[in-house]
Amino acid sequence: MTTRRILILLALSIAVFATTAAVAQEPSKTPAAEQAPEAATEPTPTVEPESSGEASLTFERSVDFALVKRIALEDRAGAMEFAAVEFTAAASKGGVFGTSDADLKTTVVVMLDCSTTAEKKVKVNLSIEFLDEEGDLIDRVTGSASLKNESKTIELKLVTLKYVVPRIKTAKISAVAK
Q1: Which of 1, 76, 141, 145 is most exposed, with minimal Cβ within 10 Å?
Q2: What is the rounded CA–CA span in Å between residue 159 and residue 170?
Q3: pTM of this prediction?
Q4: Residue 65 belongs to what domain range?
């Protein structure tokens, strides 16, 4: 092997080791994990007043994490109704120096079925937290969508390390409609 190839392989090995070591750190030492509350088993709708005097409805619900299984939600945030959620995972594409990330990374896709009958556009901010069996935060994906008198499937994608996915036990879904 040439010296250049050896240096490239060494750099890749160090990058993989550093990534694995960073993720393997105890989650309670990260600021995000300290903010993650214990997983709730019941939906908890609450009304938060806004400065304009109107109220926006939020909901939080924890569901068991299961790949390729449709989970009924039947929850509401403002004028937005959430019927179901489904989680899928696929190997990530791409790579550095011709290598494949498929052995290291995976993409978790969250698909939320939602609808509204509102004549005005309704915006919703979403946050899905992936928790382990102790309720510690593993990873989080956020996004937003707007609907106007329609039904839609909202997709949120999270690229994460492949070995982390089997450790996910619960997904905490939070939505705030405006």
Answers
A1: 1
A2: 17
A3: 0.65
A4: 27-177
